[in-house]
SpoIIE family protein phosphatase (Rhodovulum sulfidophilum), 399 residues
Amino acid sequence: MLLVDDSRLQRRILRALLERWGYDVAECGSGEEALEICRAQPVDLIISDWMMPGMDGPEFCRAFRALPRESYGYFILLTSKSETVEMIHGLDVGADEFLTKPVNSSELRARIASGERILRMEHQLRDKNRQLTDALAELRTLYDALDRDLAEARKLQQSLVPERHRRFGASEVSLLLRPCGQVGGDLVGFFPAGPGEVGLFSADVSGHGISSAMLTARLAGLLGSRSPDQNIALEPAPGGQYRARPPEEVAAHLNRLFLEDIETEHYFTLLLAIVTLDTGRMRFVQAGHPHPVLCRADGSLDCLGDGGLPLGLIPGAGFEGCEVGLRPGDRLLLVSDGITECPAPDGAQLGDDGLRCLIETHAATRGPAFLDAIQAGLTFFAGRDEFPDDVSAVLFEFG
């Protein structure tokens, strides 16, 4: 506590009173000297006379408020003035309380107690703010580390689809995969399915984020092209070769696997197709995935499949295989619901009709450029470059 008064007698009386109450008191006789003390050390509570030679009490208060401080300082002015205008001036320069001379000891003690309560609350608030700042800094560090990990996870997930385009004789496959966040739950791919056949798949794991991405990584291992002996869509054939299993059997096996061996609350949809390249025969299973669109060479469009149940949701669920014939010039498009359910600014979804419109608009475009055009059209429809769900597609063009 700092006591400022040009009267030595007044300082002695007040100091004795304050020390009797248990306060440590510093004192000085002018505003200039008091300001130097405040610059040198933090002072929480000041009792200053109004009328002093040189720098008076209000001037000292104004200068005190201008000092750089980490904490608040409570300022009490002693005055013989009682005019409202003078009191307003004191408040304007930053005074917290006024005491009229001669000072009443009970009133002084009450005003000091009031100031201490305010200072105590201010100190507690500052401590809470400091703790909050430290916590936010720690969270920022953790967030930055997580963001770096997610960036690496995104690279790893993109590596699950190492090829975005490949030719199979006169036919070709193109892929589109765009997570809505750092990582996502969509997966697309293709694999050689034995002599003269190619497998195509599009999967969508429920939810978003890391757990969904981990399941797509597991699916990539189960349906990948790098190790045919580990691809559950293939089975050994004579002569050390591999051949495609019926797609409906693969779906049933995946359903059992995710329900019995993989403990997760996620489920996923799947469209798995096996195409015989010389005849155009296509066998496929639709497990809750959006209908594949067959774009005939004559410009007509057909939505294939009957829907089916998602995988990893219902024990013992049955899955039916379907078959269709492709003719030269036909194109098959597999999409995730991130495309058909993409919302416009007004909330309306693209839907099957909107997808048909995009396909017809870009009917003359081929290969990866066609999928880029579909994505650009989706961006235009949504009115933004970011989508609320993962966007993925497989385009198979039969030659």
About this structure: Residues 1 and 45 are 5 Å apart (CA to CA). The first strand starts at residue 2 and ends at 4.
